[in-house]
Amino acid sequence: xxxxxxxxDVWKAYRLDDARTLPVLEGFSLTVAQHELxxxxxxxxxxxxxxxxxxxxxxxxxxxxxxxxGQAVRGPNRNGILxxxxxxxxPWISAWRNLTFVLDGMPEEEKTQRARHYLELVGLQDFLSAxxxxxxxxxxxxxxxxxxxxxxxxxxYMDEPFGSLDALTRLRMRQELLRIRRxxxxxxxxxxxxxxxxxxxxxxxxxxxxxxMRVTRIVExxxxxxxxxxxxxxxxxxxxxxRDLGAIAE
Amino acid sequence: MPSRxxxxxxxxxxxxxxATWWAVxxxxxxQIFPGPWEVVLGTIAxxxxxxxxxxxxxxxxxxxxxxxxxxxxxxxLGVAMGWSAVAYxxxxxxxxxxxxxxxxxxxxxxxxxxxxxxxxxxFLIFLSSFFPMVVGTIAGVxxxxxxxxxxxxxxxxxxxxxxxxxxxxxxxxxxxxxxRIGLGVAWLVVVAAEMVAIDSGLGFLIxxxxxxxxxxxxxxxxxxxxxxxxxxxxxxxxxxxxxxSVKWRYAx
Lengths: 250, 252
Hints:
Number of strands of chain A: 10
Strand content of chain B: under 5%
Radius of gyration of chain B: 22 Å
Helix content of chain B: over 70%
Distance between the termini of chain B: 19 Å
CATH topology of the largest domain in chain A: Rossmann fold
Number of strands of chain B: 0
CATH class of the largest domain in chain A: Alpha Beta
Largest interface: A-B, 25 and 23 residues
CATH superfamily of chain B: MetI-like
CATH architecture of the largest domain in chain A: 3-Layer(aba) Sandwich
Number of helices of chain A: 7
Radius of gyration of chain A: 19 Å
CATH topology of chain B: MetI-like fold
Strand order of the largest sheet of chain A: 6-7-8-3-9-10
Oligomer: heterodimer
CATH class of chain B: Mainly Alpha
Number of helices of chain B: 11
CATH architecture of chain B: Orthogonal Bundle
Order of helices and strands of chain B: HHHHHHHHHHH
Structural class of chain A: alpha/beta
Structural class of chain B: mainly alpha
Strand content of chain A: 25-35%
Number of domains of chain A: 2
Shape of chain A: globular
Number of domains of chain B: 1
Largest sheet of chain A: 6 strands, mixed
C-alpha cells in the first residue's frame, strides 16, 4: 500500500531569543500507510502538536521533507485536515452550511449530496439547520469530523479531539470513530495522551520521547475490533506503553 | 420568564416619574413649565395637522442617510484596519485624534462647507456615528479567534473570501454593537444639528416652539418623542443582536 504520509528527517527549532533556541524535532521521520490510523502518545510538551502543525502545513520545517498524498506540503491545504480539542466549526452558520461552505465552487447537486452523506455518516441528519451553539459537545465533534471528511482529504489529523468531552461521551465517540472508519477508512494521525484511547483505536501506536522528540518505540496493535480494554493483550500493551512513558515504575 | 411584578416594574417607574412631574408643577405653581397633561394636549395638536409627522420624517431621513453612509464606510475600513497591521498603524492615530472631537464642534465647519440645508446635519450625523462603528469593527476583528482563521485556511479559504465569510461573521457581534452605539449617537446628534438654522426636524421643532411664544408644552412634547424614537431604534438594533448568526457569541 502506498504511504499517505512520508515525513523524512524533519528538523524544527523555535527561537527563544538571540542566544537560545528550543529544539523540538531533530531528524524526525514517520510514515503512515493509506487508511492506517496511527496514534501518537508522548509526554506533554514533547512536540506532538508541532508535528501535526508541520504535517498540516501550518508551520514550515527548518529542514527535511514532508509529503502528504504524494505531494510536498507547502502550506495548509485540503489534503490534510486538522481537528483539535478546541473545535473550529463556524458558529455563525448552521451545521448544513458548515459543510456546504467548505465545498463552495462545487456543482450544487454534488455539494448537496456530499453534505447530506457526511452529516448522515456522523449521525447528524436531524440537525441540518441547527446552529453549533445548539449542539452538545459530542455533536460538535461529529460535525467537525463531517466537515473534515466532506472535502475527502488524504489525511485526517486529530489533536486530542475528544479531550474536552466527558468520559462517557469520549467512549461513545471512540465507537463512532471506529464505525465511521469501517464505512469509510481514512488515513488518520491521532494525538492523544489517553493510552486507552490509543490502544482502542490505532493500528500502530508511536510512543514519543521528551523534547527533542524521538520515536521511543512503535507498537503494532494486532487486536481485532471490537477491542476490549479488559483483553489481556490490551492490558499488557497499556502496561508496556505506560512504562515507556515513565508513567509507572519499571 | 420574569415574574409579573418584574415585568410591570418599568411601567411603574414611568408612572412614578409622571406623577412626580405633575406634583412638582402643581406645588410650585409655575405658569411657564407644562405639566404632563398639557404636553399630551400639545402632542395631539401637533399630530393633528401633520406637522409632527413631517418633523419626525425629516429627522429620520437625515439619520438614515448619515448613518448608513457612515456604516458603509466605517465597517469596511474597520475590517481593513483590524486585519492589516500596516493599515492599523497608519490610520489609527488619525482616527483616535478625530474621535474625541464632539460633533457639535464641527457645526461651524459644517455650515461653512455645506450651508444650512440637509447636507450639514447629515454630515454631522455621519461623523458622529462613523467613529463608534470603526472602533467597534476593529475591536471585533482583533478579537476573532485564531483557530477559525486556521480552519478556514485548512480548507483553502484565503484572501477576500476569508474576510467576507469568516472574519466579518466572526466579528459580527461586536460590529453590531458598534452599529447600535453609532445609531444612538446619530440620533443624539440629529437634534443638536437641527437646532442650527433648518426649517424641519425634531431639533428645529424644539427651538421653534421656544422662540414662537415660549410653547414649553411643545418643547417637552418634542423631547418625549425624541426619547421614544431613540428607545425604539435601540430595541430594533437589539433584535438584530438576537439573529442566530450574531447571537452565537452570547449563547454559550
